[in-house]
Amino acid sequence: MARKTSRLQEELKQTKPFGSIYQEAALSVMKTADVFRRDTTRLLEPYEVTPQQYNVLRILRGAGADGIPTLAIGERLLEETPGMTRLLDRMEFKALVRRIRCEKDRRQVLCYLTEEGARLLATLDPLIEATDRNMAARLTPEEAETLVELLEKIRETRQ
C-alpha cells in the first residue's frame, strides 16, 4: 500500500515519494532546522548579531569569570565553523568579547564576555526564548521532551 503524499513532499513540491521513511525523516529535520535558523537570524538582525555570534555569547556567559580557550568555544558551538578567529575578531570589534593570551600557556588565548556582551544577551535571551516557544507552540511539553530524546538518539549514532 502506497503512503499518502506527506506535507514535506508538498512543501518541497516533490512529486515522487521519498526513497525511505528515514530519508524523509532526515530531510524533515533539515527543513525544520532551516526554519528555526531563518527565524532566529531575522530576530537577531536588528542587533547586528548572527546566530553563531549569539551562541558564542551564551558559551562565554557559561564560562564565567574564568573565561574559556578559543578552541573550547569551537567544540561547544551548535554548528561547526572553520573561521573561529574571524568570528571572534568581529565580536571583539563590536566590544562583545575580549581575548587575552594565557599567562601559563602563551599558545592559548582565553575569551571573556564583556559587559556590552552581557547587556546584549540580557536583551536577546527573552526574545529568543519567546521565539523558540512560539515555533514549538504546537507541541505539548511531553511531545517536546520526546522530540529531544529522539534527536539525541539520532546524534548518538555519530559518537
SSE map:
Layout: H1 7-11, H2 21-44, H3 51-63, E1 68-69, H4 70-76, H5 84-93, E2 97-101, E3 109-113, H6 115-135, H7 141-156
Antiparallel strand pairs: 1-3, 2-3
Helix pairs in contact: 2-6
Task: Describe, in plain words, how this protein is organized in 3D.
The chain is mainly alpha-helical and 159 residues long. The chain contains seven helices and three strands; from the N terminus they run αααβααββαα. It has helices at 7-11, 21-44, 51-63, 70-76, 84-93, 115-135, 141-156; strands at residues 68-69, 97-101, 109-113. A three-stranded antiparallel beta sheet has the order 1-3-2. The radius of gyration is 19 Å and the shape is elongated. The two termini are 36 Å apart. 11% of the residues are buried.
Summarize the structure.
It contains seven helices and three strands; from the N terminus they run H-H-H-E-H-H-E-E-H-H. The protein has a domain at 49-156: Winged helix-like DNA-binding domain superfamily/Winged helix DNA-binding domain (Arc Repressor Mutant, subunit A).
